[in-house]
Prior knowledge:
The protein is mainly alpha-helical. The protein has a domain at about 50-80. The chain has one helix and no strands. The chain has one helix spanning about 50-80.
Amino acid sequence: MAKKRRVRTTPVAPRGAPAPAPVREAVPSPAAPPPSRRPTSSLSNYDYSYVRRDLRRIGVLAGVLLGAQIVLAFLLPHLLR
């Protein structure tokens, strides 16, 4: 089976002809200086203490459930004989 030939997608300049110069886009200069620091977000005023409390509660619950699984893993084989 013969190989497929690829068709060039970009036009090629003839040999010996100078290559066209790349197009340069003009970059606008800033008219005004960049703004200074933005004001502090209003989110920093919120109280997130409940999040810490909830994460602690989740951690304790996960520890208790993991401990119960470990205990059951040792006790169930002896109880089911």
